[in-house]
Amino acid sequence: MKNQLMTSATRRSSRRSTLTAEERRRQIEAEAARRAAARALSLDREHEGMPWYAIFTNPLCERRVELGLIGIGLCAYVPEGRRWFKPRRSPHYVERLRPAMPRYVFVAYPDRRRPDIRSVDGVAGVVGMGRYGAPVLIHESTIADMRAAQDMGALDFGRDPTLKFDVNDPVEVTSGLIQGQSGRIVRCNNANEVTIDLGWISAMPVVSVDVLRRVA
Fold first, then answer.
1. What pTM value is reported for the model?
2. Residue 5 has pLDDT above 80, yes or no
3. Residues ≥6 apart with Cβ < 8 Å to 125
4. For residue 56, with 0-12 CB atoms within 10 Å meaning exposed, 13-18 middle and 19 or more buried, which class applies?
5. Is there a contact between 143 and 77 (Cβ–Cβ < 8 Å)?
6. Which helix (H) or strand (E) holds 35?
7. Which element (helix H / strand E) includes 188?
8. Per DSSP, what are the bridge partners of residue 212?
9. Is the pLDDT at 216 greater than 90, yes or no?
10. For residue 99, how many C-alpha atoms fall within 13 Å in the half-sphere facing its CB?
11. Is the pLDDT assigned to residue 171 strictly greater than 70?
12. Cβ of 109: how many Cβ atoms within 10 Å?
């Protein structure tokens, strides 16, 4: 049995190694396009007042479960964050989306149908509580807050290494005492901090670039 597993793993590794960089890039883009189409369908099904629940998945199965849930007529959401890495022998960073909450997928029923979500490949179970494991109900505002945090970059794995701020750049503070305030950079103090002019107070706060995002 052990030899069979090793042989199977070797074959999978061999198939991956035969792909050229360009073929791998096209494969990643095709998978991303398929996820984007499924997510658009899921968003189109959503309506106000929908109850959400949390699904616990098998390891590395978040996106497989997401597509499976959407495929049986449900709505699904996988919180994601951006991660940057530099491939070997390349001077450029590559950006990839990764699940921000490993092994969790959020699901909602858009109508009265209740298909068996445990039949979806990769589902380990429904997150429950209490003696009988009643499914935990998640309010739609919590899902909206997670999506807003994702859009603001709060779920990213670190800071975008390619993002550079310059004097006069319009920015918004995403965290801290002045969260939500907008202004312009008046001085770049160093690689990690800038001074911004908020326009409504004489004091110009020094802010970490980790909590800034560029705005139009």
1. 0.75
2. no
3. 55, 56, 118
4. middle
5. yes
6. helix 21-45
7. strand 182-188
8. 173
9. no
10. 18
11. yes
12. 17
